[in-house]
Amino acid sequence: MSGIEPDIEAFRAAALRCPLPEAIELIGEKWAFLILRGALNGLQHFEQFQAGLGIARNILSDRLSKMVDGGILARASDPADGRKKIYSLTDKGEALLPVVVALRQWGEEWCHGPSDIQLADQQTGKPVKTLRLRAEDGRELALSDLMWIDRRTGATLRRHQASDAKL
Amino acid sequence: MSGIEPDIEAFRAAALRCPLPEAIELIGEKWAFLILRGALNGLQHFEQFQAGLGIARNILSDRLSKMVDGGILARASDPADGRKKIYSLTDKGEALLPVVVALRQWGEEWCHGPSDIQLADQQTGKPVKTLRLRAEDGRELALSDLMWIDRRTGATLRRHQASDAKL
DNA sequence: CAGATAGATTTCAATACGCAACTATTCTTT
DNA sequence: AAAGAATAGTTGCGTATTGAAATCTATCTG
After folding, report:
1. Which residues from B are below 8 Å from A71, CB to CB?
2. For strand D, which residues in window 26-55 of chain A come within 7 Å by CB?
3. Which end of chain B, N or C, is less surrounded by CB atoms within 10 Å?
């Protein structure tokens, strides 16, 4: 009774301590993500983002501000031209590279088909490795190989564990 | 003249053939991403998602349909209970695991601080490896180590290459 | 048969989006 | 120095999306 099943409770409790929602606030939105992609590709100025992404100016302005507030981008005046502002990735923003590349690789494999433009290592010219989840020892891990572990209590939770246990 | 700088043109050309926008349509949205996380954590039913995420029912309904249409989730009737529908991840959906984990790891490192709940390998109980971009030979790659390569023409493009070349 | 449950759909107010026009600085050209 | 162009925004306004609550239908349980 009183409704909520144990796995939902377990999940919600975990979700509250999960860093994902905060991350999603910052870049879990179409334009923010495309701005990030642009920045990773070297775009730096308002007009570049605007023309490059085809985004409305007010929306762009809003997203850039939020991303600056969120610490992903830094806004600076161009010393060489007082009209220009330079938007550059912070370390925090650059650290999103694996997320963007992982999504790109997924899109390539499951939506788009191999793109003729590929991300490659400058040194060798060879394509970057496909990102995969791995164990500490390097074994590749699938969803079914995973569990949650609570470092304080030591409690563990497998994917469907709780849904059977009516506890 | 006529406005657009060469690096924006290069960016736009590349963007047109980029698989990211399509991927972003499907999961580049707060709720879609949270539903995906829920599904990866074993949520299967409408009411579980609703209660677990605190999402409005109409929005949930809309997103679930779009994710089914997009091939990320499959909707099936529960043979044991005709009222229930089972939403399960397709292979395409499961393949998003690295994206979700990468974002989670980013949030943990840059937003949230270490979470007390950690994703671990069932076999060893040890936390999963942090996802990083690597070259084919295993070297870790930073943003500045990357380039774009066009497989058809063989042309290459570095991050800021075009912004100096006023071509 | 009378609830209760699961998965939605409908209604409606509030918010967010997107386009176009406008503003304010700061170069650049003449 | 004045006129024009470039850069980075802001404002107004119509449209689309969201979110909360109520409603609906089919199925299951007591």
Report:
1. 110
2. 45-48
3. N
Say what the pLDDT of residue A108 is: 95
Does B125 fall in a domain?
A: no
Give the domain range for residue B35: 6-93
Chain A residues with CB-CB distance to B12 below 8 A:
51-52
Asked if residue B46 is part of any domain, the answer here is: yes
Mean pLDDT in residue range B33-49:
95
A116-132 exposure pattern, b = at least 16 Cβ within 10 A, e = fewer: ebbbbbeeeeeebbebe
B157 DSSP β-pair partners: B148
* Per-residue confidence (pLDDT) for residue A98, from 0 to 100: 98
Q: What does pLDDT average to over chain B? A: 88
Place of tokens 């161009």: A78
Chain B: closest CA distance from residue A76 (Å): 18
Q: Which of A108-122, A134-148, B47-61, B147-161 has the lowest mean pLDDT?
A: B147-161
The single residue listed with the structure tokens 């490795």 is A129
Q: 10 Å Cβ neighbour count for A52? A: 25
Q: Is the pLDDT of residue A89 over 80?
A: yes
Q: Is A86 on the interface with B (CB under 8 A)?
A: no
Supply the CATH number for residue A44's domain: 1.10.10.10
Per-window interface: A 18-77 vs B, CB < 8 A: 18-30, 33-34, 37-38, 40-44, 48, 51-53, 71
Q: Residue A100 burial by CB count (10 A; 0-12/13-18/19+): exposed, middle or buried?
A: buried
In a domain, B122, yes or no: no
What is this model's ipTM?
0.91
Side chain identity, residue B73: L
- Chain A residue with CA closest to B53: the answer is A12
Q: Is residue A159 part of a domain?
A: no
Number of structural domains in chain B: 1
Longest dimension (CA), chain B: 68
